[in-house]
Amino acid sequence: MTAMTANSTTAATQQDKALLFHSLHTPAAPLALANVWDAAGARLVHQAGARAIATSSAGVAWGLGTADGGGLAREDALALIARVVAAVDVPVTADIETGFGATAADVAETVSGVIAAGAVGINLEDGLQAGEQTGDHPLRPVAEQSERLAAARAAADAAGIPLYINARIDTYLRGAGEPETRLQDTLTRAAAYLAAGASGIFVPGVADPDVIAALAEVVTGPLNVIAKPGLPSVAELGKLGVARVSLGAAVAEAAYAVVRRVAEELAGEGTYDALTGAIPYSDLNALMS
Questions:
Q1: pTM over 0.85
Q2: Which superfamily, per CATH, for 14-249?
Q3: Per-residue pLDDT, 1
């Protein structure tokens, strides 16, 4: 594997970045990702020392004027991914929700577009979106999701890129199934998804350290969880066996909370104290020059 760092002066190929991205998933030093939704955010996160950049489908959707969970058009998502990739020289992984399509072939087409945009990783979730759910269960059947993951892997192989496919399992996020069987259900899905071609397993919504440790002990690929206030630190999560820690939509939520505070103060008291601590114009402009 090519030895590289985020500060490498040699231009990295997309394959180099993909290999590097795979290598960053280790509990010894978990990959910590502050998910972004635009080029400026990507550069700020990179400047802070991030070893890779991840997009947030929620942040992207909100920033482009639509709801997350099926509202974002594939072409808009791909255009945003390309802008983020162009803004940084570290690996970029893209949240592509359920793959922007009803069929496995649609997922493959999306993955081909993601690779053409320059990204080296994806998140592909098994939670059903609005209009897809026909019964009581909020998740896609295991066999169907495995087919979609296999199609994603085949598209990446055809492009010659060792894409990192992060298979998202929404059992805990959606409260799927019975609580007493949720861990086993998650492990069953994880095994099937890894066999279908996934590189790692992403279980958002899990917060109990004992459950996280149990997942990490059995899942044979790198484990990714969502961090939030109150959870153990990145290093402590690594000791539990976690290889990747994401912030998901939380960064966008925090940013928009600033917008709301500023707007409410301006409309109410007519003051501007909520602007304290803002990044100076000159710094942001220089960042994007």
A1: yes
A2: Phosphoenolpyruvate-binding domains (3.20.20.60)
A3: 30
